[in-house]
Amino acid sequence: MQVTDVVGDMLTRIRNANSAKHDKVDIPASKLKEAIAKILLDEGYITKYEIIKDKNQGKLRIFLKYVDAKRNPVIMGLRRISKPGLRLYYKCCDIPKVMKGLGIAIVSTSKGIMTDKMARKQNAGGEVLAFIW
What we know:
alpha+beta; five-stranded antiparallel beta sheet
C-alpha cells in the first residue's frame, strides 16, 4: 500500500496508539519522520525512538509517554496543518502559536525541520507541518 501523506500517516498512527494506550508504535522509516520523532523526543512528548533496519526501508519505533499509572497520554492532540492538497507557508513572524505557547508547531524550513520557537529564533519561515499539544 502506497501512502500519499507520510506525515499525516505518522500522526494518525501515533494518535491511534495513544488512544489505545500502547507502549510503542511502528512506522515505516524516513528521514522526515526521524526528524519529527527527534523533535517529539526533545520536547518531551515521547520517551525514546529507534530505527529498526530490515531489508526494505526500515521501521521507526516510537515509545509513547504517559503521565500517570492510569496511562493518560502526554500528547493530548495532534493535527496535520499543511496537507498535500493545500500547502501552508508562513514567514517567521507569522508562524502561529499552538494553544498560546503551550503546544508546538513543527515547521519545515530551509534550515531543516524544527519547532515554531526555533524557527522564530533563527528567523526562518517555512511550511507548518503539524500542531502538537
